[in-house]
Amino acid sequence: MGYGKQLYRATETRIRQSLVENLVLWVFEKNTRARSFYEAVGYRLESGKQKEMRFAGTTTAIEVRYRKLLKGETALAMR
Fold it and tell me: Regarding the domain delimited by 3-77, which CATH topology (the fold level of the hierarchy) does it fall under?
């Protein structure tokens, strides 16, 4: 297991000890490495959830939203 995944697992273990029921994050649509990483650790793309960001004039980037459920029966089904 790589360093990034080890760090993520340790962080998620701590988060699971709190009252947090799910995690949400936004990632650039074209960032396939990050998207693959988050999908590998259990995040699921929320279809229809995206936003457009504008940078310096006409440059735009699309962000997509991912969610990972941590508590309850639904969370077990999504692993």
Answer: Aminopeptidase (3.40.630)
